[in-house]
Amino acid sequence: MAPYFLRNLVPKREKRENARPLLTVLGELTWIQWALFFSGWLAWTCDSLDFFSVSLSVTHLQTQFNRSTHDITTAITLTLLFRSVGAVVFGILSDRYGRKWPLVWNLILVAILELGAGFVQTFRQFLALRSLFGIGMGGIWGLAAATALENLPVEARGIASGFLQEGYAVGYLIAAVINLFLVPEVSAGWRSLFWTGSGISLFAAFIRMLLPESEVFLRAKAADAASGKDTTKKTKIFIQETKAMLKRHWLLCIYAVLLMTGFNFLSHGSQDLYPTYLTASKGLSTHDSTVATIIGNCGAIAGGVFAGWLSQYIGRRLTIIIHILLVGAFIPLWILPTTFGALSAGAFCIQFGVQGAWGVIPIQLAEMSPPAFRATFPGVAYQIGNMVSSASAQIEATGGDNLRTTIIEGGKVTDVPDYATVQGILIGVVAAFVIFITIIGPENHGSQFEKAKTAFEEGGGRDEIAVEDRAGESSRRESDSVSGDEKKGSISEVEKV
User: What Gene Ontology terms describe what this protein does at the molecular function level (predicted)?
Assistant: First the structure.
């Protein structure tokens, strides 16, 4: 018999055999389902574009504020630190009041703060804006993932997860293209990148405003209206069910934070300082480093979509493990070359692995989450992991200050930070941790979490199925149930560690 932490690493045969063909499922989606998925994807893309505006502008910000790389990366750290606050606030609002308006106001707040960042005149003002900006950004991921995935059939959620998560890479790609073609051509310079991001975020808010609420909330609100419950009663129930969820799933909460800490170190450690690494340690021009970043994000998009699709057939955890192993295999290609072509190839391959593993995360977190808290639980776990890993860029910058190498520029030898070695060590260690924490964790592959009660219904915190769904689900397989037995089994795997 396989060790307990290896059980269910691959979906059971009957699950794979009974699943409908993906193309058939996609062909049956309504335009509302497509639109809600696009809305969630676009919101997450905006979040990424806005975040990486700083990473791509490090050199310009150094000149603008006369600060070191280490000082500029403080803005990245502060943004990541405050994102957990936004995840809690907007996650609770979403699980209590619905997906639509909390996400709309979240995107509007992000747009306002991003616009303001383009007008700052001092470094202190810039840090203040980016700190507040972190609160706004923190709510986006959990709300976007819930909006995009909970309205889709179970068979489509794997590949949808990959597409959704790679909104992160697409956002980075859009920011890099803007930085490459717009920023050098306008008098506003780096500020134009922030203003453009603000406009796109406002557009995403407008798109979500046009679309209806998620079906699960429309059903729950209709049931509550029929029973005569008012807002005060629903808020009281929400608080009670939140306490019940924390009591029941506290160990799962800790596990999710550890998982996301590893993943965020992996992501930020391989991306936040990457443009600076290419220019400072490899001697590439700003233009070439931006192009290499674009190529790397093409690899990220390909990896995320492929992994999301693959996870539907071989399981979430096994797909993650395979792609993290690819990360380890490609570290030498990522840090050893000195030419643009080889470095670009390394960027493509390393991001195929990193974001391939990440492509599974939206659906993995959604399926392991307490079903009634699909915005709060994944969002808070994600952003606390972000908070713990918030110093990634500063760790690498400090490492580069202390670990030096030389390059030949213009016929003379120049002493530069050895970011290649620093990043290689960091990513190697983090990859090993992610493999370990993934193996020991739970997996609720194919969970129909949309059948559960919402957080403002009695029983939501205990993972109970909605009354109207329970009647038609008596013969449903145990592996697809969210009534509690599967959740207990999943957590027991974590408890044994």
Answer: secondary active monocarboxylate transmembrane transporter activity
